[in-house]
Design goal:
With 81 residues, the protein is an alpha+beta fold. 30% of the residues lie in helices and 35% in strands.
Length: 81
């Protein structure tokens, strides 16, 4: 399977998943200094987890991967998609 061609700079979406919207918003604010959008996503069936869709401008592939890694490493973010 070929890797898709991405033209940079572009907007990129990440789905961040955690326990509360407040913790997720604080984590994103701590890690993303660039202009971005956060839109509420879905809540798990039992209400234990919540997701937010983060849209941010990335300048190149290394920036996109670095942002993913920093989001994934944050203690209040359980998963990043």
């Amino acid at each position: 399977m070929d890797k898709p061609e991405i033209e940079y700079p572009c907007e990129w979406d990440y789905r961040v998943i955690g326990f509360t919207e407040e913790l997720l918003r604080a984590a994103v604010a701590e890690l993303v200094s660039d202009e971005h959008r956060l839109v509420p996503g879905k809540e798990s069936k039992q209400g234990k987890y919540i997701s937010l869709c983060l849209t941010v401008q990335v300048v190149d592939e290394s920036h996109r991967h670095a942002l993913f890694a920093s989001l994934k490493a944050h203690g209040d973010i359980l998963f990043v998609l």
